[in-house]
Amino acid sequence: GGVASGPAGSSGGHVRKRRVLTPSDLKHLVVDDEHELIYCYVPKVACTNWKRVMMVLSGRGKYSDPMEIPSNEAHVPSNLKTLNQYSIPDINHRLKSYLKFLFVREPFERLVSAYRNKFTLRYNTSFHKRYGTKIVRRYRKNATTEALQSGADVKFQEFAEYLVDPGTQREAPLNEHWQTVYSLCHPCHIHYDLVGKYETLEEDANYVLKLAGVGDSLHFPTYAKSTRTTDQMAAMFFNNISSLQQGQLYQLYKLDFLMFNYSIPSYLKL
User: What general EC class does the enzyme of this chain belong to (predicted)?
Assistant: First the structure.
């Protein structure tokens, strides 16, 4: 899968050509020219730690320990190079010859993790303002003035309603924290060499570092967050929504389930 410089024009005939990627599709692909790596970051799948590691790898010795990099630093766009910043020939050369990898997670666990992180914590006021107020306005009957203004107490059921509303994606692409991996990383156009799993994060991450030739000097940060979203937690949140909504959410994330070999969760009432 190469990259073309503009949106593909439609040709005569009835054969619908596969959409060609354009540079703007490549914003999530972080490049390390030093070790010839491309990492597609997926929020809520160890993305902060991978960005830290990529900063160590591409920083020419500026950092040695990923954990000395504050998490907010890891998310400053100018600290990492992304593939869309290169010329078309440079992009295609890198897609051909670099080691390309991404990390995935059970889609509903990732979704619940995003919900918990962005809508249930006090400090995420930018998300409350940007998305919460809109969700409350659209999907909550008799919302209080305070809720309409702060957007700080979005229920999972309201978030689900927002996601499956056809108007949501017509208005804008989903936020990267709940956008599908399929849409963020284009796994059908880009042939990834490795797909790591959140379930085996440490092992898979260290395998990538070994292949990159830095396995001896660099280890993936090990840490078990006590607040981490589990399958049981996802089940609890999904129990609060109707089987219709469950089915609609499954449809929304279906490609992520199928492509990365995750089975339909047993807690769904489909």
Answer: transferase
Q: Please indicate, yes or no, whether residues 167 and 191 belong to a single structural domain of this protein.
A: no
pLDDT, tens only, 30-60: 999 999 999 999 999 999 999 999 999 999 8
Confidence of residue 10 (pLDDT cuts 50, 70, 90): very low
- As given in the structure block, the two tokens for residue 254 are 């279906």
Decide: residue 140, CB within 10 A, 0-12 exposed, 13-18 middle, 19+ buried: middle
Residues 169 and 245 in one domain: yes
Three-state SS at 179: coil
Residue whose entry in the numeric block shows the structure tokens 């790596």:
37
Rounded distance, CA 99 to CA 208, Å?
9
Of 126, 112, 125, the C-alpha closest to 155 is 112
* pLDDT tens, position by position, 184-205: 999 999 999 999 999 999 999 9
Are 64 and 158 contained in the same domain?
no
Retrieve residue 225's tokens: 């967050």
Residues β-bridged to residue 82 = 30
Cα angle 245, 246, 249; round to 5: 85
Half-sphere exposure of 125 (CA within 13 A, CB side): 3
187 and 69 co-located in one domain: yes
Q: Do residues 87 and 24 touch, judged by C-beta distance below 8 A?
A: no
pLDDT of amino acid 11: 46
